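@channel sequence for tomorrow's demo:
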Amino acid sequence: MATETSLPDNRALPMEISSQVPNATPTAQRRAAPVRPEVLTTVYNFPSMEPMRFAYYAANKLLLPLRRDILHRAVIYEGDATRQGTASTKWRNEVHGSSRKIRPQKGTGRARLGDKKSPMLRGGGVAFGPRPRDFSSGLPRKIYDLAWRTALSYRYRRGQLVVLENDIEIEMDEPRWLAQIMEWSHLGQGDGGSLLVARNPQENLSQAFSGVGGHGRLKSEDDVDVKDLLKAGRVMIEKRSLDRLLKKHSSDLSRTVSSAM
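structure tokens (generated this afternoon):
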């Protein structure tokens, strides 16, 4: 009479024996890391806009889905940080003047009134006026970094992220000449304007962009924010600036928990 027998368990066998059993998985072996998807970008030369080479970036940096809620939180956070909060008014005890009562309390037939620093009189204090305060709001660092890469991904998906070669240089500092180049390359005001981000803008480039008007703006990589990426019709950025910004805003990709801003 036949009896059922259980198959040998490879986990209970020694390493030498388990290596001889088919379909055995030694504990020392590790699963291969998955291939990280990448996206392809073209690097152009400015101002000729001639394609020079290709560059690859991780999909979790330039191919993120659109998150309007995160972008909204980032724009509000940046706007609150730029508010000065220096508006100030004086209450009646801070206004210079005598505290003598203007007229008697009774007998004049008119409304009762105190000193001339009353908020009801011209030149007196301001009731419930603004006082200096801090308008800045908080936002976790990982959410802000995710908003940065989401804004860049939004431009990349729409074909509005133009990666340029490093050290952008132009021959002349004439704004009219630069405006003609922007219009010829479909980067000017008629196509929504462009934002050029450079690490160390050249002097001629800065002077030329100062007079092109709505055709484009020039900002250094330290001054650009999420709102600038969303406001312009197209974003032109040096490759090294893009690499530095992506590296700077990648805290949510690491396993270590960073402090909130």
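heads up for whoever presents: The first helix runs from residue 15 to 18.
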